[in-house]
């Protein structure tokens, strides 16, 4: 987390046809992972099959630590359980490197932008 508690994570979500787009802006770390998980859990609340497509817009993500990576793995597992088509959009070089060095990159579908993810799904 940034010094003096200045870091934050803002999360918003919205529907785009049969897809849900969840946008994360800020830092996905130990302090903000629970909030991120709560928002994503809302996506699957009620009917787990109601969200056939989920796009995580990570364009505004400025930091992701191992706890944030664990949250992405939780989302991946949950999307597999619910047969939700998961895409990551706007992945930074740093996060891509993190996914690559941990061997997790092949498990995620990554697009440059939300628009590309929605168009090419």
TrEMBL record:
Belongs to the anti-sigma-factor antagonist family. PANTHER family: ANTI-SIGMA FACTOR ANTAGONIST TM_1081-RELATED-RELATED. This is Anti-sigma factor antagonist. Transmembrane segments: none annotated. Gene3D superfamilies: STAS domain (3.30.750.24). InterPro entries: Anti-sigma_ant, STAS_dom, STAS_dom_sf. It comes from the Bacteria. It holds the Pfam family STAS. Residues 9-121 form the STAS domain.
């Amino acid at each position: 987390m940034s010094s003096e508690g200045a870091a934050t994570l803002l999360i918003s979500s919205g529907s785009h046809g049969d897809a849900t787009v969840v946008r994360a802006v800020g830092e996905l770390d130990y302090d903000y992972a629970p909030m991120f998980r709560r928002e994503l859990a809302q996506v699957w609340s009620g009917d787990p099959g109601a969200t056939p497509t989920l796009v995580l817009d990570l364009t505004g993500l400025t930091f992701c630590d191992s706890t944030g990576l664990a949250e992405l793995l939780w989302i991946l597992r949950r999307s597999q359980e619910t047969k939700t088509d998961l895409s990551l959009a706007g992945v930074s070089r740093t996060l891509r490197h993190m996914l690559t060095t941990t061997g997790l990159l092949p498990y995620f579908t990554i697009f440059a932008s939300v628009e590309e993810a929605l168009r090419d799904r």
